[in-house]
Design brief:
Blueprint (H helix, E strand, L loop, with lengths): L18 E7 L3 H14 L5 E7 L6 H9 L5 E5 L6 H10 L5 E4 L11 H9 L5 E5 L13 H15 L14 E4 H7 L10 H8 L6 E5 L14 H15 L6 H26 L4 H24 L7 H33 L2 H23 L5
Parallel strand pairs: 1-2, 1-4, 2-3, 5-7
Antiparallel strand pairs: 4-6, 5-6
Helix pairs in contact: 1-2, 5-8, 8-9, 8-10, 9-10, 9-12, 10-11, 11-12
Length: 375
């Protein structure tokens, strides 16, 4: 077995890898060593590399990768500071590679690495542009999803994606796939680079309909770390689908703001009606609804719309304070205009809705450039 095949550092002047495995990760320190060991086993005999793209994990993920990379040239780390998000991490990882085939898998060891050679071969042979590890073809399973709620989220996303995809895919929510790097690079300018479902983005954004193969794949239980799949991920997923259907005319971040604003309007109206039922006057009820909407909008914008710029620690509290100040300016217009409409028409619902929309527009136009500005 050559030095290239034994999973250790290749000799000076060795050929570039035939495949690059891109592993986007955040707080996966405990999984780094097992991941590299697994890749050494299944990719023995190939020219390969693994590129961990770490979003500056506080648990020392990047340091764990660097410790291995010092003695193993198969292993690299791209450490991102000030940028977050699985899709953008995958894009940066692919663009940092020169291999003709790129594969993507999560850093949590839930993807069955034993099927990785089949995915790579399906693309390297020229038979497919993209090969997908599917949990929903014969021989695949998704038993590793933690509970019924996560199964429901995944199934809901699959149904949504299948309604708009240009090709048939049983598992468009899969994060385990291989692709031609040249196709990925050609498509990269069209990718939304937001959210967690880069496969769907790639298939929908490709300039020509890609040839897709599905390979049965299991989804194993997570052994360490925490799952990132939650309701907010599905919301990001839905906005990305809308972005693709709108052909880029309505950017994902704008639609995220619009969705958050719509939720804020509903919260505003619900609280207002609740306070009204308790006997509060219009102005008191409107302020109560507005404050609750502000807090809801801040939390959702921080988690969904600006997940890649999420505020944490001291910045979270300073951002919240700034957001409240900005929104309170809009709230005066909200309550003032709503009050005038109420006096003129004596209609609570319409008055509150008009005032709430004014507040949402101000929130989008101003706080997006002040609170979550790019750093």
């Amino acid at each position: 077995m050559s030095a290239q095949d034994d999973g250790r550092a290749p000799p000076p002047g060795a050929c570039a890898p035939d495949v690059s495995v891109i592993v986007p990760c955040y707080n996966e320190q405990a999984n780094v060593v097992p991941m590299v060991q697994a890749l050494r086993r299944v990719l023995a005999g190939r020219r390969w590399e693994v590129i961990f793209v770490d979003d500056n994990s506080p648990d020392g993920t990047a340091e764990a990768v660097a410790a291995i990379a010092r003695s193993d040239a198969h292993v690299r780390c791209v450490r991102r500071i000030g940028r977050r998000g699985l899709s953008s991490a995958v894009i940066e990882g692919v663009l940092s590679s020169c291999a003709p085939v790129v594969a993507v898998m999560d850093g949590d060891l839930q993807h069955d690495e034993a099927r990785l050679p089949d995915l790579i071969d399906a693309v390297a042979s020229g038979a497919s542009d993209i090969a997908v590890g599917s949990r929903h073809v014969e021989g695949g399973d998704n038993a590793g999803l933690a509970n019924a709620w996560r199964h429901a989220l995944s199934d809901g996303g699959i149904r949504l994606a299948q309604a708009v995809l240009p090709v048939r895919l049983t598992d468009p929510m899969s994060g385990f796939f291989a692709a031609r790097r040249d196709l990925f690079v050609q498509t990269a300018p069209r990718l939304s680079a937001t959210g967690f479902k880069i496969l769907l983005d790639l298939v929908m954004s490709a300039p020509q309909r890609p040839r897709v193969t599905e390979v049965a794949c299991g989804f194993k239980p997570r052994l360490a770390g925490e799952s990132k799949l939650d309701t907010l991920v599905l919301i990001q997923f839905a906005t990305m689908v809308l972005d693709k259907l709108a052909n880029g005319w309505l950017p994902t971040r704008f639609m995220g703001f619009a969705f958050v604003g719509a939720v804020g309007v509903l919260v505003n109206l619900a609280v207002l009606e609740g306070l009204r039922a308790l006997g509060a006057g219009f102005v008191t009820a409107a302020w109560g609804g507005t404050i609750c909407a502000i807090m809801t909008n801040f939390w959702m914008n921080n988690r969904v719309t600006y997940a890649d710029r999420r505020l944490r620690g001291a910045r979270l509290w300073s951002g919240l304070a700034l957001f409240v100040v900005v929104c309170l300016v809009g709230a005066f217009a909200n309550v003032g205009i709503g009050s005038q409409f109420h006096v003129a028409r004596h209609e609570w619902g319409h008055a509150a809705a008009i005032g709430a929309v004014i507040g949402v527009v101000w929130n989008y136009a101003v706080s997006s450039t002040l609170v979550w500005r790019a750093r």
